């Protein structure tokens, strides 16, 4: 039988600051015969079936993009690594100011942080994505944020195995 603590340790960090998702899946399903991707699908389905308020809470668990040197951020180790690989931890002052401005514009329009699976993206592509997505409706962007959260979880799972 799959140990609860082991499952939560591995799957509890796939969704940012939301181990309760892994706990719920463990409590609701028999997971022994399922592959890691099948387990992740159960987690995705759980998230997709949450009401809008709970989805918003999940979205709000995500940090603002951009790590400023000397400014401690409340980032998970996964987020730090992901942002570092995209070059978001080593921005010039002008790049940081641009990202901060785009983040602020995004937050003002949508009332939640810009979320993107940064794995494999350059900082320039991240900036372009923010600009493009600022054109979206609130509903479209809410759905995009949830889809990006699922992509992040899938990438994190792949990195575990």
Overview of this protein structure:
Helix 1 (4-11) packs across helix 2, helix 3 (36-48) packs antiparallel against helix 8 and helix 4 (52-60) crosses helix 8. The protein has 8 helices and no strands. It is 63% helix and 0% strand. The chain is globular, with a radius of gyration of 16 Å. The mean pLDDT is 91. By secondary structure, it is mostly helical.
Please write out the topology.
Elements: H1 4-11, H2 19-28, H3 36-48, H4 52-60, H5 77-85, H6 93-110, H7 123-133, H8 138-160
Helix pairs in contact: 1-2, 3-8, 4-8
The total tally of domains equals: 2
Q: What amount of the residues lies in strands? A: under 5%
Round the mean pLDDT to the nearest integer and report it.
91
**CATH topology name of the largest domain:** UraD-like
The ordered H/E elements are HHHHHHHH
Query: Which sheet architecture does the biggest sheet show?
Result: none
- Number of DSSP helices? 8
Helix content: 55-70%
* CATH architecture descriptor name of the largest domain: Orthogonal Bundle
Radius of gyration: 16 Å
> Could you say which overall geometry the principal axes of the C-alpha atoms support?
globular
Tell me the span between the first and last alpha carbons.
19 Å
Assign the CATH class of the largest domain.
Mainly Alpha
Q: Name the poorly predicted regions.
A: none
The structure class reads mainly alpha
For this structure, what is the CATH homologous superfamily of the largest domain? Answer: Oxo-4-hydroxy-4-carboxy-5-ureidoimidazoline decarboxylase
Give me the count of strands. Answer: 0
